[in-house]
Fold this sequence. Notes:
The chain has 160 residues and is an alpha/beta fold.
Amino acid sequence: MSKTQFVGFGEEGFWAYDVALGIFLKHLIDAADASGQADAPWLSEAVSSWRVTACISDYGLTLTADWSTAQWKTFLILVEEACARLAARESIPAGEIVDWQILEGTCLHTRGAPEVHTAPIVELGQAIIALVSGRLQAAPKGKIWLYGTPSGRETLGWEG
């Protein structure tokens, strides 16, 4: 099982630590469920995909450009809400994380961490906003960003 998952939009993207991406997506799903729009077909389909990506690290998060302007606006509002909910806490205990019911028959993992600090996860959420808004800072030459690690954003060598 890989520790990273690719987050992509069009031809751009970055890598994310799987623990952080799973926790972020859980909060994004919660924001979608609380939005009053969860029954909209596009959002329901997206939430189903997010559930799989959150719990199974073999999948990455692919954001496609086929949503309408209104749908993208809603998505960005949901990402901001997820970031705000995460930022309200300094950390989340592992026991709480593994108890979340996101996808039937699976649970999130913490890779042995007794707690997960939220600041790197908020940074990951902000990177998703920057990515889809075309404002993601370019990684150093020959590198690609890795977001959500316990120590925050890092770079990886990249040939792509």
